[in-house]
Amino acid sequence: MPVSAETLRYRYAHATHRWLVREQNEDAVAIAPEHGLALIADGMGGYNAGEVASGLAVDFLLTHLADDLGQLRRQDRSNRGRSELSAQRMLHALLRARIDGVNEAIIDAANREPTFEGMGTTLAMLLFTDDAVTTVHLGDSRIYRMRDDVLSLLTRDHSLLQEQIDAGVLTPGEARASINRNFVTRALGVDVVAEPEINEYDLRAGDLYLICSDGLPDMLSDEQIFDLLRGDADQDRDDDDIDRVVDDHVVDATVLEGVAGKLVDAANALGGRDNVSVVLASVGWERDAGAREDDAPNDLQDSTRRQA
């Protein structure tokens, strides 16, 4: 299951900010490199309920999926004749079961505590395996992929605006100015049955993945996000630009951290209407052919990261 030291390697970086008009950050960000996991949950609800929902979602998924993926690894070693399709079905079933579990946990918490009533959270998650990446999402947090100088949106927003765009009621430009931009049609903790979208994509050395809460695309167009990822937004470009580093090698962690910070800063500079969080994941071969497994792809351990 999760990638071994003999195959592709990864580095991760993240940045988050509560923005200018928010008193607290309801986004929760988590990265677990040893399990190939990265996720963002964007909470919704009054008082501090949104923060509670997103934190609960991240903690639950990290705790349970870490155990689940370890068990799947052991099963893979003992069932090497199992087909790739069978393994994929098992993984998807496991993910759906854990999504059901965290959905129920959020609803139960809201029922027990009156101030948590109505809380919920979006979810956008990447899970890297030996030869593919699995995306899981509910709501309007997004996952992008930069490949061969093309930025692709891998998720479709579960939102009223997206439904209006699909129906031809609004153009994408009109949707950006709509007062209904934060109305999501799927989320954790909202309905008794959660409906995540789960998809598989092939991996290539040189891929760069971006997970973000809606605070980023609400302020920046895809073209602006693309320019920042490549470095075109900077007048003075240098060797740290993503497009000069991402070939078939994993990008240095300090470069990723700089780009993640630029994305958040650029969105913040445009006024700040919501929390914004980003995670970047670089896929590639290690430049040092002698790199050992204990030379971590980055210095992050299993953790939840939130920043007010």
Q: What structural class is derived from the secondary structure elements? A: alpha+beta
**What's the order of the H and E elements?**
EEEHHEEEEEHHEEHHHEE
| Portion in helices | 25-40%
Tally of domains: 1
- Biggest β-sheet: count, sense, barrel? 7 strands, antiparallel
Report the count of strand segments.
12
CATH architecture: 4-Layer Sandwich
Strand content: 15-25%
What integer value in Å does the Rg equal? 19 Å
The CATH class, by name, is Alpha Beta
Shape estimate: globular
Mean pLDDT, nearest integer? Answer: 83
CATH homology-level superfamily: PPM-type phosphatase domain
Residue windows where pLDDT falls under 50 for at least 5 positions: 1-6, 288-305
Number of helices: 7
CA distance, first residue to last residue: 35 Å
Q: Which fold does the CATH topology refer to?
A: Phosphatase 2c, domain 1
Question: Can you characterise this structure?
Answer:
With 308 residues, the chain is an alpha+beta fold. It has a single domain (9-305), classed as Phosphatase 2c, domain 1 (4-Layer Sandwich), CATH 3.60.40. The protein is 33% helix and 23% strand. It is built from seven helices and twelve strands. The protein has helices at 49-78, 84-112, 160-166, 172-176, 222-230, 242-245, 253-269, and strands at residues 9-17, 27-32, 37-44, 120-121, 123-128, 132-138, 142-147, 150-153, 197-202, 208-212, 276-284, 303-305. The strands form two sheets. Strands 2, 3, 4, 5, 6, 9 and 12 form a seven-stranded antiparallel β-sheet that branches. Strands 1-11-10-7-8 form a five-stranded antiparallel β-sheet, with helices on one face. A hairpin with a 4-residue loop joins strand 2 (27-32) and strand 3. The longest helix is centred in the N-terminal third of the chain and has 30 residues, at 49-78. The protein is globular and about 50 Å long.
